[in-house]
Every structure is written in C-alpha cells, then in structure tokens.
Write a structure and sequence with these properties.
By secondary structure, the chain is mainly alpha-helical. The chain is built from 21 helices and no strands.
Length: 378
C-alpha cells in the first residue's frame, strides 16, 4: 500500500514539474512555437551535432584501436605513468584519451574505453572517472585555434593551463565520490583481458594488412555504436539547455525555428553578476552567457565571442577564462548523461556533473588569476 501511495505521489510531482516547465516556456513563446522549436532544435542537433559526433567517434575509434593493436597504448603507459598517477590517479594509458578528445570531442574517450585492451589498465573508479577526464580536454584544439583566430595569442594558452588544473580537480573529485558510494570499486578491475591469447592470435595472423584493416573496421564499428548511444542524451538535454539559454530571433519574435528560447539561464546568472565579476574578472554582465551556453555546447558558446568583440565587451582576461571554462566544460551537461550511460554507470551521472561543475569553475579561476599575474602584476 505504501509503495502504491509513493508511486502515485511521485507521479503527481513529476506531472506537476513537467506541466510547470512547459507552461512557463509556452506562456512566453506560445504553445505552437514552443513545440516547433523543440522539434526543430532536436532535428538540427541530430543532423548537425549527433552525426558529427558519430563521425568523430568512428574515426577516433578506428585510430584508437589501431594504436592499441600496434602497441602505442603500452608505450604511453610506460612513458607517462609517472606523470598521470600523481596528477590524475590514472594509468599512463589514459593520456591517449586526453589526446583524442583534445583533437576531437568528448565522446572520443568512450570509443577507447569500449576496448578491453584499453580499459583493462583501470580500476573501476578510475574507469568511471574517464568521463570527467576526457571531457575536460574536449574540443580543446578547436577552442584554442578559434581564440587565436580572434587575434589573441597568449590568452588561449593560459586558458589551456586553467583547463588542465580543472581536469585534475574534476577527475579526482569524481574518483572520491565513486569510492565513497562504492568502496569495492577501488580494487575491482574495470575489465579483464588475456594478453597471452592476443599474442598467440597475432602470431597466427601474420599479415600486416589484415591487422591494420581489422583494427580500423572494428574500431570504427565501436564508434558507430557509441554514436547511436549518445543520441538520447544529446537531443533531450541539449534541447532543454538551449531553450533555456537562447532568446527570440533578431526581430524579437518567436517563429518556432530551431535554437529559440526564453533566456532563463542568462537572466538568473545576471542576478549574481557581481559574483562572476569578482571570481573571473568579467567587466560586462553579458559575458556570463558564454559559460552558461558552454554547459550545453561549447561550439554555440564560441559563436558568441565575435558578437562580444564587436560590442567591445571582451578583453584578454575574458578570452583566457572563456578558453579555460569552454574547454573544460565543453558541453558536459549534454554529454555526461549519454557517456556514463554508455559506460553502464548512469546512476553516477549527478556526481559526475557536480565534479565537473567544480572543475570548470576552478579552471576559470586559475585562468583569471594567472592572467592577472602575467599581464597585470608583472
């Protein structure tokens, strides 16, 4: 009886929350425009974002499997072990994931983690924290090149330094949460792999061409699976974040097109503008829109920078902070759910999001204070 009452109560609460959310959005945009915007935004995300990410996953999955097949993973494990363990408490092989996500995007780390020859180096708590570790370097090269293209040279490098420290905080904090919730994960292996059997297989399969071909195709197939797995998280979470972040069109009207919204998140952030100004040195409240937008999609956040420059709102400090927080967060709010779901640890999503929120703030703080030290104090 209690279970039935509990289910009824939770159902009522859920229904009220959903109705309040859609009523709040619909009363501003209009019911028809709201529904059209939701559908059009999800459609655009599917075509322009999900398939793009799937392409990244296929390519990085193929390259990652090739690196595993020919011993690059083992080499990185040996060379970088002294650096990775003290900083991130991860095996040296995790650095391959950082490189792949830096060159592409967050889901590249998942393509690697699906390979048992990669994941067998990790304990379960380390394996789960790969979501935070890889995300902190997601689209790093794109972000840095974009900022350099806007006429800033040293500030993006300061942002990269901030993202590095933010990654340490996010990864370590996630590992703490995982071990606290599941102490047994501190000693359990993420996967088991028989390397002796693999060596026998390699001896039997002597053709170099077949080894390369099989590695590329098997890794690419894994990338396709990952690309399909991230569809629900990207479409549902990103659509919601974008509707709450963006506003009406340039004429101030709602038409039902993709990427329109009610600007709730920037409105709330502007209420505590003094807080962001103190922490990050922002000299205009509009700049808060960048980190808010980066929660859902760093590509969308980057599109704001030319507009900010044209208005004269952006200085070197803002570029350093944008680079750090944009690179570290890189749309984690829309990808963490899908990434952890793919790894099989969906119940830890809230802890991953909390850890990465703190990591992104630390990244921005480091970038801000290093910029002040380099360009103001010195």
């Amino acid at each position: 009886m209690k279970d039935k009452k509990s289910k009824v109560l939770s159902g009522i609460v859920c229904l009220l929350i959903i109705l309040a959310l859609f009523f709040g959005i619909g009363s501003r945009m209009g019911a028809g425009n709201m529904l059209n915007t939701i559908m059009n935004t999800a459609h655009q995300l599917l075509l322009n974002t999900v398939f793009y990410l799937m392409g990244i996953c296929v390519i990085t999955g193929a390259i990652g499997r090739l690196f595993v097949e020919f011993g690059v993973v083992d080499l990185l494990e040996r060379i970088l072990r002294p650096l990775m363990r003290p900083l991130f408490n991860l095996p040296g092989v995790a650095s391959l994931g950082a490189v792949m996500t830096f060159l592409s995007d967050n889901p590249a780390i998942i393509s690697l983690s699906q390979d048992k020859r990669f994941s067998c180096y990790f304990k379960k708590f380390q394996y789960i924290s790969l979501t935070n570790f890889g995300t902190a370097f997601g689209m790093g090269l794109i972000v840095i090149i974009f900022m350099v293209g806007q006429g800033f040279t040293y500030e993006p490098l300061i942002g990269l330094l901030g993202a590095f420290f933010g990654c340490i905080v996010s990864t370590r904090l996630m590992q703490y949460f995982v071990i606290k919730a599941y102490p047994q994960y501190a000693t359990e292996n993420a996967a088991e792999y028989d390397f002796a059997k693999e060596e026998t297989k390699k001896v039997e399969e002597k053709s170099l061409f077949l080894r390369v071909l099989n590695s590329l195709l098997d890794g690419g197939r894994t990338g396709v699976d990952v690309g399909i797995a991230i569809i629900p998280g990207v479409l549902i979470i990103s659509t919601l974040v974008m509707i709450l972040t963006f506003g009406s069109n340039e004429q101030g009207a709602y038409t039902g097109n993709a990427f329109e919204g009610i600007e709730l998140l920037p409105y709330l952030a502007n209420k505590i503008d003094w807080f962001f100004s103190f922490l990050f040195g922002f000299n205009d409240p509009h700049l808060i829109a960048f980190p808010i937008t980066a929660l859902g999609a760093v590509g969308a956040a980057l599109s704001l920078v030319p507009k900010f420059l044209a208005q004269g709102w952006v200085d070197g400090n803002a570029i350093a902070v944008f680079t750090a927080i944009g690179m570290c967060w890189s749309g984690y709010l829309s990808t963490h759910t899908a990434m952890l779901d793919t790894l099989g640890y969906r119940e830890l999503t809230s802890k991953a999001i909390l850890s990465h929120t703190v990591g992104g703030i630390v990244a921005a703080l480091i970038a801000h204070w290093v910029y002040l030290l380099c360009f103001v104090v010195l």
